[in-house]
Hints:
The chain has 437 residues and is of the alpha/beta class. The chain is 31% helix and 25% strand.
Amino acid sequence: MKRRAFLKAVLAAGTAATAARSPGRSRGRVLIVGGGFAGSACALALRRLDPALDVVLVDPDESYATGPMSNEVLVGWRSLASITVTRRGLRAAGVRVLAGRVADIDAAAHGVRLEDGRRERYDRLVVAPGIRFLWERIVGYDAFTARSMPHAWQAGEQTSLLARRLAALPAGGVVAICVPGGLMRCPPGPYERATLIAEYLARRRPRAKVLIFDANNHFPRQDLFTEAWRSRYAGRVEWIAGTAGGSLSGVDVTRSTLHVEGGTQRVDVANVIPPQAPGLIAATAGLSAGHGWCPVDSLTFESTLSPGVHVIGDACIAGAMPKAGSAAVSQARQCAAAIVAALAGRAPPTEELTSVCFGLVARDAGLAIPARFELRAGRWSAMPAVDVAAAAQAAAGGGGHDPLWPVAGLALDRTSTAAAQAARRWYAATRAAAFAD
Ligand SMILES: Cc1cc2nc3c(=O)[nH]c(=O)nc-3n(C[C@H](O)[C@H](O)[C@H](O)COP(=O)(O)OP(=O)(O)OC[C@H]3O[C@@H](n4cnc5c(N)ncnc54)[C@H](O)[C@@H]3O)c2cc1C
């Protein structure tokens, strides 16, 4: 569509929508693309900070299954329903939720077009589309063959598919988890998954094992995961690093075969996690840079490539912050505060941002990977581990309990029951903060 026609249609849509609301109440309209942890948390934070704001959230799905705790679903500890949230909480908070997918952004015209042709205008746009998979990097793998070799890296139907494959594993069978190189969603996730599958096999298929084919040579809390594999699941988990030939180049689903650098491997269940990049809309709207991810101003999360458009969550690159739901919620709150400040003509606030990833190693044991980020030379930089531990101790000593960062008093150098309990508390609090559901 020609730009002028797009602009005209967007303005007309905006006028109609504004007329439908009570005149004079709203101080501006913020449109959010994507209702995952980042987009939903941002919508709620905006409404909380300024109830007069018109907040519109666009997402194709009426419900959303969370990545966090989805590894528990795989091994039968939870149902998929228990990790599925609705949009009811957002609506109750006054967010206007539109079912649809944004196909096009015209930042100059302050408008978006949905796939079905509807148009919406905005004063500020927040883009939070999560990730897309780079299928083309693995020969023979695509959205169709992923039904036979599920990635389960977007929770929902894929989680159920992998759970069914595991349930059908023959005695003495081999489960393979393939981990991509490059920046990815939830870096400790594949190793938690391998550990929980090992626990499952110990109970259900004592002669079966898990192979991890990894494009990387290190992984988060490798010391604690490796120790759990040795002490709890001896002989059941084998990790093949990138330098040992673990990098996956292709699959053959009809022969149930993986092509890794080290050779060809036949397996019974393959969990192929593909390389990742930001959700497609980020690329088509010109928000991603040469390295693939979306660069943003640290304080406001405004795109450095497209003024007035903010990018949060897994899609953005925010200094040292990991691609995690906890980080997404922290970014969402900072971004919401910056938008409210900008609309009121104030400077954005500066907060510390946080993230915490938990990894379960058994039903009653887990590990925590907490981090705090401060702005150094305009970049979110991880505070030294000793300061993070001190912050955790300060919280334990009554220095303020943060339910989104429940690491107070946890021993971070070992797995513990307390960490598993904190993981479940964190999940409940973060889910409430993001979805009010
Ligand atoms: C197995 C697993 C375990 C995990 N465990 C943890 C954990 O313990 N702790 C933790 O902090 N994190 C964890 N994560 C990571 C966490 O799930 C992600 O970091 C988080 O979901 C990122 O949120 P997001 O909002 O950026 O993206 P998403 O949650 O993917 O949400 C993006 C949303 O945008 C929508 N969307 C995309 N494109 C468009 C469009 N064009 N128009 C409209 N809507 C669109 C999508 O439908 C989706 O609903 C885990 C992930 C996995 C896979």
